[in-house]
Design goal:
single chain, 119 residues, two-stranded antiparallel sheet, elongated
């Protein structure tokens, strides 16, 4: 076993774990926000206030992209779903960049390059 490769891969693995952990926390906050708005939760309740305060900076950039749908106190916040999708794509892209930094052997690189349609 090549110890050079294994020591180089460990930080990359740790980095991907950190990205997915942060993404999971962001998604959890946004899911709670979406559900609380959907069920028409009291915005003055302590739990609702905490979720709305923590999730606002995450959802804020998307809040006026699409209109929310309101029915009898319930709000279907399309923008929160858009934010969740954007953050997923962002996390996926960062993890892909980390994986691209993984050291590969010459043989492995040749095999992977031969599978690609390189013009």
């Amino acid at each position: 076993m090549d110890t050079t490769n294994s020591t180089a891969v460990k930080p990359l693995y740790r980095g991907t774990q950190i990205v997915w952990y942060i993404f999971s926390v962001v998604e959890a906050l946004l899911i709670f926000r979406f559900l609380l708005k959907l069920i028409g939760a009291n915005p003055d309740a302590g739990f609702s206030q905490v979720i709305y305060t923590l999730s606002y900076p995450l959802a804020g950039p998307f809040l006026y992209v699409v209109r929310s749908t309101q029915v009898s106190g319930s709000v279907f916040e399309w923008t929160t779903l858009l934010a969740m999708l954007v953050y997923w794509v962002l996390a996926w892209g960062i993890v892909r960049l980390f994986v691209m930094g993984k050291p590969v052997s010459r043989g492995e690189a040749e095999v992977k390059l031969s599978r690609q349609d390189v013009a």
